[in-house]
Amino acid sequence: MKKKKWTMFDIVLTIFMIFVLVVTLYPFLNIMAISLNNAIDTARGGIHIWPREFTFANYQEIFGSNDRLLQAFMMSILRTVVGTITGIIASTMLAYTLSRRDFVFNRLVGFMLVITMFIGGGLIPEYMLIRNLGLINEFAVYILPMLISAFNVIIIRSFMDNLPIALEESAKIDGANDFTIFWRIIIPLCMPVIATIALFLAVGQWNSWFDTYLYARGNEALTTLQYELMKILDNTNISGGDITSQNAEVIAGQTNPQSIKMAITIIATIPIIMVYPFLQKYFVTGLTLGAVKS
């Protein structure tokens, strides 16, 4: 086999991609290094991508200071799983209906969906609606408001519009009804875009804390990880100032606000990062296949 000769373009491109890789990974590695470093030593500064004095004290302080953190973690997982599954089912069913050429109100419903992307009712009307529906301090408040997203429906519908119409016609000739066509033909073919939407929904559900603050803080059983971590951050009173000037702020638990902040960032980020590799191969495909009509 002949060795490939490196051109000047290859060298420049390689150097550029290495630079992009370093720029992308450095902030995350820096945050992880600070979260795993001794808090008093961190106050001196100079931590880059590797901790000087390795310790789990920052994480022990977080989990030790809040006995509801494990319960909140499980609730975040539950709402993410349930919210993602129900969101996918509702969005794909609506998208399939809108993709049907014989649906009379196709344009009207599509127009109403698009309008919601530009015009919102506001926080107060939304809160009054949630309250009148009896969803305050109920688990359903995590699911129903995020059940349908116009953006997700439009992406799925665009994907379905590019599927060969002959597949549906042949299935109808064989006696299949609409539900059979949807579940056995359309859904398997739409797995790339479904995986993409699943990632959007999962990230949105996992990172959400404001709905817990507004609608579910009266029920301790519904507290979520992001909401509990937000309260810990609020209690540490992080000023965002120069870390080298916070030596006097190092608290008794051998940690400081900066270390707590970095550890919380890692706790909130790692679970969703672990999900992404399983969906990555579908991500680009799901967004591009429905983007161009042939």
UniProtKB/TrEMBL annotation:
Transmembrane intervals: 7-29, 73-96, 108-127, 139-160, 181-203, 260-279
Natural source organism: Saliterribacillus persicus
Location of this chain's protein in the cell: Cell membrane
Entry similarity comment: Belongs to the binding-protein-dependent transport system permease family.
GO terms classed as biological process: transmembrane transport
Membrane topology summary: Multi-pass membrane protein
Domain of life: Bacteria
Gene Ontology CC terms, in alphabetical order: plasma membrane
Protein's recorded name: Carbohydrate ABC transporter membrane protein 2 (CUT1 family)
Keywords (A to Z) from UniProt: Cell membrane, Membrane, Transmembrane, Transmembrane helix, Transport
Main location: membrane
InterPro entries: MetI-like (IPR000515), MetI-like_sf (IPR035906)
Ranges where the ABC transmembrane type-1 domain occurs: 73-279
Keyword DNA-binding carried by entry: no
